[in-house]
């Protein structure tokens, strides 16, 4: 007698939430990471996103050593009690800063590493937080004040030039248009013109919204 068994496929959905890590890892603020990179301090990164996400965009710089190992490999290492061997696959030396999209999967992996006695920390808010870092530096040039804005995530630069009660914005980023108005107001100036000097792929211009 032949028995026919029908197997129905089961859809598996990844949850947006992650279990609590075995120990609470140290966290690193994106702004602190930006300062360390600007100072040329060596940074050892473990990116636990999928490879395609990593290849599209990741934290980079002359002092960065970045390794991509997916979150699933960290879970496998936990199950097989091989977290130390997993950590050996991370290039570079020193503390490991773990990165993911929003700082959730990376918090879990950083906790796994810390629980195994490996110095590790989690990049708070992940790449979302890294994308929001926008540094400002003030330069005095004669009678004018120039504010330079730098976005480490893309290397883009923007400027606010203030002279007396008038201001101009140069190469504004669309995600940060409110910053230019706030900084101009703080210096009792009104923005009278917004200028784009060039167009490139990783710069979403804020010219239209800044001029509104």
Summarize the structure.
This protein is α/β, with parallel strands linked by helices. Helices cover 29% and strands 26% of the residues.
Proportion of helical residues? 25-40%
Structural class: alpha/beta
Coarse shape? elongated
Q: Return residue spans where pLDDT drops below 50 for at least 5 consecutive residues.
A: 1-15
User: What's the arrangement of strands in the largest beta sheet?
Assistant: 1-5-4-2-3
Give me the count of strands. Answer: 10
Total helical elements = 8
* N→C terminal distance: 79 Å
Written as H for each helix and E for each strand, in order along the chain, the element string is EHEHEHHEHEHEEEEHEH
Q: Estimate what percentage of residues fall within beta strands.
A: 25-35%
Mean pLDDT: 87
Major sheet description: 5 strands, parallel
- From the alpha carbons, calculate the radius of gyration and give it in angstroms: 23 Å
What does this entry look like structurally?
By secondary structure, the chain is of the alpha/beta class. 29% of the residues lie in helices and 26% in strands. The protein is built from eight helices and ten strands. It has a five-stranded parallel sheet with strand order 1-5-4-2-3. Helix 7 links the parallel strand 9 and strand 10. Helix 3 runs parallel beside helix 5. The radius of gyration is 23 Å and the shape is elongated.
Write the SSE topology.
Layout: E1 26-28, H1 30-38, E2 43-47, H2 51-56, E3 64-68, H3 71-79, H4 83-88, E4 96-99, H5 105-115, E5 120-123, H6 126-131, E6 135-141, E7 144-151, E8 156-163, E9 166-170, H7 177-186, E10 190-195, H8 207-211
Parallel strand pairs: 1-5, 2-3, 2-4, 4-5, 9-10
Antiparallel strand pairs: 6-7, 7-8, 8-9
